[in-house]
């Protein structure tokens, strides 16, 4: 039997709904307004700094792309190495088996 005064919130039937603008809409519009106002008041020095920041971000993205490419090349090299090792071991095993067969045939 369930206690009617329990703290089981999943059994509540009343839902409280907020009918105003969502948090994201409210603060996104305020942020856009602030950005427009601040961009009007931006000095030449701030513009230069922003250009430098943008260049640095593009360089970071370029370095990340190059690093990802190097990681991919490294992974491909590891796969190639592993396949060569497997081929070598298979060939060595085949030679060992062939040598054993030759020794066995010479004894017969």
Automatic annotation (TrEMBL):
UniProt KW keywords: Coiled coil
Alphabetical list of InterPro entries matching this protein: SCIN
Superkingdom of the organism of origin: Eukaryota
Coiled coil residues, start to end: 42-87
Annotated protein name in UniProt: Uncharacterized protein
Species this protein is from: Trichomonas vaginalis (strain ATCC PRA-98 / G3)
